[in-house]
Each structure stands twice: as structure tokens, then as C-alpha cells.
Amino acid sequence: MSLFGIGRNQRTFRPKKSAPSGSKGAQLRQIIDATLGSGNLREAVRLPPGEDLNEWLAVNTVDFFNQVNLLYGTLTEFCTAESCPTMTAGPKYEYRWADGVQIKKPIEVSAPKYVEYLMDWIESQLDDESIFPQKIGNPFICYLPTTVELQ
């Protein structure tokens, strides 16, 4: 079982991840909820004064994962292994999966399998205490901005 209390056998829809009650992450989640409805995206993502950048990025990363998970959940019936046999970005680009640990050489997989591998990999990163500490008072060991940046 993951540190977020979610089992690993969910494949298409995964329950929403959340910070432990009373944690700094839960407090920051309340700030995010309050600013997202403002209509000002710049304000919604700005680091609140006095808050830790790593904490802020961690909470927003988990929120982004939850949003992508919900969006993908609406597409699963339209993209099956039969209808989407490869993960592509148009006719010129094909994605192959390799995580560098269990699958070292990139392999061709269906789009749903690629997303499954990707979501499992992201979830394993979110559950890794050395990257995203969950216990109150545990410090961030790594510099999170370089860990969560878009590649």
C-alpha cells in the first residue's frame, strides 16, 4: 500500500491522493483551493509569502497528478489497446516506454499501457519519502524544482 493510502492495483482510475490531515501540505491545499476560484491563474500558482517552495511544489504536483488522473479516466473507454495500439503524438512521433529500472530498453506498448506505466511511475515518485516526505516535520532532502520540472 502506498503512503497516500492507495493500493497499486488500480489501473484506469486511481483514487485522489491527498496530504495527511493537519500537515503543511493539507494547509497549502486549502490555499490552492481558495486561489483557484479567483480566475487569476498567476495568483493561483504564486508561492504564498512565507511558505516553503518545496512544500508548495509538492502539493501542486500531487494536485496536477490528481487532475490528469481524472482527465484520463474520462478517455479510457475511447482509447483501448485495440484502438490505440501505440502511444503517438501524431503520425511522426511514437513514444516507447522505459523507466530505467525495471524496463531499461525502450519498448513499444499500447497507449493505455504506456499511460498505466507512466501513472505507476509517477505514483512511485510521489510515494518516495526521499522525494516527497509525508510525515510532518520530515525535511525535503532533494531540491524539488529540478525534480518536478517539465522535461
UniProtKB/TrEMBL annotation:
Region called Disordered, residue ranges: 1-25
Segments forming a coiled coil: none
InterPro entries: MOB_kinase_act_fam (IPR005301), MOB_kinase_act_sf (IPR036703)
Pfam family, one: Mob1_phocein
Name the UniProt record assigns to this protein: MOB kinase activator-like 1A
